[in-house]
Every structure is written in structure tokens, then in C-alpha cells.
Amino acid sequence: MPNSYTQLTLAAGSASPNGTSQLNYGPFDFEYLNKDDIKFAILTPGPLWVAVPVASVNETTKIITLSSSIAAQYPSLTVTSARVYRATTTNALVDFTAGSRISEADLDTAYRQGLFAAQEASEDASGSASRAITTNSDIQDGAVGASKLATDAVEAVKIKDGVVGATKLASTLNLSGKTLTIPTASVTQAAVTQHAAAIKGAIDISSGMTGVLPAANGGNPNNLLESFQLPCDGIAFSRPNGVAFTPQTVASHQDLTNIDAVVNGSSVTYTPPAGTKIVVYEFSFDVGADSVNDDAKASFKLFLDSDEVTAFYSMVKSPGGNDGFPPGWQTVKYAFRIGSGDNTGSGRVNTWTSNKTITLKEVSTAADVATCHRTFHYNLTASNTRFVRPLIGITALS
Q1: Of 255, 261, 379, 392, whose CA–CA distance to 333 is shortest?
Q2: Which listed residue, 332, 355, 356, 358, has the most CB atoms within 10 A of its CB?
């Protein structure tokens, strides 16, 4: 049995003592002069004994304590063997001078110091025989290759700031699991403009990115999410979200003789894109008299589903004199707010996540019959009529 160290078998986990995930190791069973001479080492691949600093020694239980566990200090290594060893100082513990009285205790201390030091050297208590002292000048340039470096052996604090240049980086860096911080103001408009061609060819923004590009770069200005305007011909239009919108089919004129009759082509059933704050409705149509020498008068009301938007009302009327000249092309345009609470009168809704229908209705009388979607005086001939197809449009803003 060695006189200068105690060999320990380590186990993974936090079994106490001698578990690699806890702090206490021992007990040891050798003699020593001073507890500061008690050291600890682990056996690493090589094999190589590596000293681990000791935080404290319990001289009663013969257990040493580390400041942090072996597993924490060497997370990439599997350590199964360690030793508590003695490293007796070689500085003289007793100084005999001429004429001094020699005590038994001093003789014992001097003797034991020499004996312990001899035992430690003979038994290689620290495992130093497995190590060779090599200076920097002993290592030939380029001699330390990748195979000589342990996994995760080079720590960030050992790399000098600014020494890893572009030529030392891999051509492709996978930073998908990392957070990249770019210094403030380091990406300037001038730099982007200078390398515009390279950026355009190298960056794929087809998915995973949100935001609005400036209009000059192909983006939509004014927080525009969606906008379309279509003739009321019944032909479906594919929206950006893949949902088709089909305008109503209007193929002939419509006499306005009833209260709250729907103006043909004006109805639109619509669900805006996510994030929409404003829906702008737009309906353009022709209004005139029902005969060549009659006056026309009609009013129009706007509805969101079954609720009238009382903040809107529009009226058209011929100038009089029974000349039959129509008021002409009319456009009804109104903005519906989303997310500011519900208000029926102004058409404001708190949420709009499913279909709602916007409709224009007419108010007219038999005395002054107005007609939609037809005009007289085509090609400057009073009796010539012409069908005029209305337009329906929607704009969604964020």
C-alpha cells in the first residue's frame, strides 16, 4: 500500500463521497506534517494526472473538498480514477543552530520531512512521472495539430481579441441556433448600396421574414396589406392569401325606384388579412335619369352587414330643367376602422376575422326616377344609351 497517496475510484453522478458531480472525496489514510500538503489529482486520457485545487481538508474525517465538482470543471471528460496525495514542502521545517537545544519533536519533524519527501519521490505520489516539462521553445512551429488538442480544450478566454480573421472562418457558418448582434450603425445605406448585387443574389427572403419594404425597393407604401379594384363582371380574382374574390355580375342598367334596394354590384363579402387596421371600400358607378329629358334624384346609404353606417349619406340630382343630362360617374368611398371598439354609426368594429358584407343601398322615388349603370347622350346623341359597368374595390391597411 502506498505511503504517500490514496487511490480513489470515482463514480458518475453525485454519490458521496467520490461522485464526479459532488465536492467531497476520500478518505485518505497516509500521514502528513501539514494539511496544506494534502493535494488532489484526477487521471485524464493519455493517461495524464492533472492536479485539481483543494478548497479545504477535514483532518478528522480525512475528506478533502473541492470548490467545484470534477464534472463541472471537466465536462467533456469521463473521469474514473483520482488520488489524494501528499506533497511535503522541501523548505526546511527545522533550522538547527550552533549551541541550540535539540528537542525530540524537532528531530521527529526533520526526520519525517525527509522520509515523506523520499516516499513521495519514490512512489510518484503526484503522478508527475506521467508528465514531461516542455517549454514553448521545445515545440516546433506547426507541430501541434488538431489531433493533439482535446475536445473543447481551447476556451474563449484563451483566444486573443481580433486574431480570428476571415481566412480562419469556414466558408459556411451555421448560426441558426445563435443570436447574432450587429453593432449599432455598422450597416449603413452606403454599404448596402455598394454590395446590392451580392446581397440580392445571396439572401433568400422567400420565407421566415416579416416587414414592409420601402416602395423604392418593391415594397408596398403606407402599410398596404392588400388592394384590388375589379369590374363587376363575375370573374374571380385570386387574392395574395389564396382566397378567391368574385365580384357580382352586372350586365344591365338598374332603375332606382325603391327605398333600401341594393345597388347592383355594390355588395362585397370580405375578410381582411391578419393585422389589418383599416378596410377601405370603394364602389364606382354611373347614375343618371331614366329617360332622355327627365331629371334624376337619388340618395344612397351604406351598410355593414345589417347595420347602417349613419355617418355616411350621399345624394345626386340633375341640375333641373328636364334636360336629361345625368349626374354621371359617382364614387362611394368609406374607411372602416378595426380594433378601436365597436361603433355601428361610424362602421367601426373591434375585430374583423370572418366575412362581413358591405352594401350600398338606394333611396329614390317614382317622381324622379334615377338609373344606375346606363348613360344617355352616347357619342353626343341624346337618345343614344350606353351600358356602363361599375367597379368594386377594397384596400386593407395595417
Answers
A1: 392
A2: 358
